Amino acid sequence: MLISNACLAQNGDFPSHKVDSIVKRIQLPVIPAYQINVLKLGAKGDSITDNKKVFDKAMALCKKNNGGTIMVPKGIYKINGPIHFVSNVNLKMEKGAKIKFSDNPKDYLPMVLTSWEGTMLYNYSPLIYASDCSNIAISGEGIIDGEGGNTWKTFKAKEGSGKNRSREMNHNNVPISERKFGEGYFLRPQMIQFLNCKNVLVENIRIENSPFWCLHLLKSQSITIRGISYKSLNHNNDGIDPEYAKDVLIENVNFDNGDDNVAIKSGRDHEGRANTATPSENIVIRNCNFKGLHGVVIGSEMSAGVQNVFVENCKTAGYLKRGIYLKTNADRGGYIKNIFVRNIQLNEVEDCIYITANYHGEGKGFQSDISNVYFSNITCNKATESGIVIQGFPDKKIKNIALKNIEIKEAKNALSNENAENVLMTDVFIGQRAGVPSAVSKH
Q: Which letter, b or e, does each residue of 1-30 get, where b requires 16 or more Cβ atoms within 10 Å of its Cβ?
């Protein structure tokens, strides 16, 4: 193992063969031929009528037929409550179709098993929720609107006590069955969540106005997300959050989010560290356009570990605070390793590449291992703060970082590199490239 890591660190080559084998392993859902059109069941796309019962009935008919496709034609379909998937179903939205969810929190009760910022618990149902399903898809060119900008938005200021209670329960190992939240705790639900699912496809749809995280891939595997777009600018509107997720392909996505575009996680603190058998791993992100807070983030809730992440051929389409951001702190434990990033074009950012083991300066006792991180062929027009930041701990250094062919044309602070060992830089330019030295004295 040491030999291969040393070789990789020397050249930082992007292991395309590993990407190919992950992508080959991922299975697209197989959906039976049965089809049901929601209009045939009495749905009204008039933006006023509540279609909750119709969508529930469509799902029940699919279940009876061992799966099928639910067709949603052009129109605006109000749904007062969540859509709960069964296996072998494709929710297919035609161009001009929009599902508009209600923003009455009571509509998302009874509570379901979910997770909130890295802690498993019972809370409001995500707006689209699939638990223990296989072979499921959300497809077509329609829009899913989470109506997150009104009632749900007010929850942010009131979430503190619920958030703290969830973290105490995590730290004190309270049985998950006793972690009941919902009314009175103000923890917003995710827009779309897959829990314990496999062979999942989300393709070509547009996601708007989520209450909280947009697309949460929780304890799920064999997932393809492609061709989707966003306009979701509320609090904590992460685009895609793989958490304890395995074998994931994210490609050709146009992000426009109020928070991270892709945030790879694996549980928080004690609970995460108890789940080291299910790290987030084998995640491929390629050919995406980033716009929002950060492009690709790993952390900060990553206590079960994150490994084998491959990011390539992405660029910014608008403002981004940080390009690639690895963040953890001394409460988390776990590890981040075998991260490969290449062919990234950033325009103006605050920080281009940022790796920190001391996020917010928080925590103690559980420092994370960060190692084997390879960046190559990255360009950035301007970093208003820092070009490259690497921050480990004196007694827990970040190890084996390779930076190759990096050009940051302008940066307020070029490089901050502390408590890291075996950092290898090849053809790294921050600021104006130095020319050939002049031999003639100016004096």
A: eeeebeebbeebebeeeebeebbeebbebe
| Beta strands, E only, 102-245 | 112-116, 119-123, 128-131, 134-140, 143-145, 192-195, 198-203, 206-208, 215-218, 221-226, 229-231, 240-243
Q: For position 11, what pLDDT does the model report?
A: 53
Residue 442 scores a pLDDT above 80 = no
Phi, psi torsion values for 21, nearest 5 degrees: -70, -35
State which H helix or E strand residue 23 sits in.
helix 16-25
Of 381, 219, 307, 352, the C-alpha closest to 18 is 307
Q: Chain-wide mean pLDDT for the chain?
A: 96
| Contact yes or no for 133/85 (Cβ under 8 A) | yes
CA gap 184, 180 in Å, rounded? 11
pLDDT for 360 equals 87
Peptide bond into 110 cis (omega under 30): yes
Residue 238 C-alpha from the chain's centroid: 6
CA 415 – CA 192 distance, rounded (Å):
39
Give the closest residue to 187 by CA, choosing from 129, 243, 122, 239.
122
Give the helix ranges, DSSP H, for 137-282: 151-155, 160-171, 269-273
Residue 3 binned pLDDT confidence (cut-offs 50, 70, 90): very low
Whose tokens are 């499921």? That residue is 136
Contact between 223 and 217 under an 8 Å Cβ cutoff? The reply is yes
Tell me if 372 sits within 8 A of 5, measured CB to CB. yes
Question: Residue 97, Cβ neighbours under 10 Å: how many?
Answer: 22
Residue 301 corresponds to which tokens in the numbers above?
Answer: 């809730």
Distance CA(129)–CA(117), nearest Å, equals 17
Give the per-residue pLDDT at 9: 45
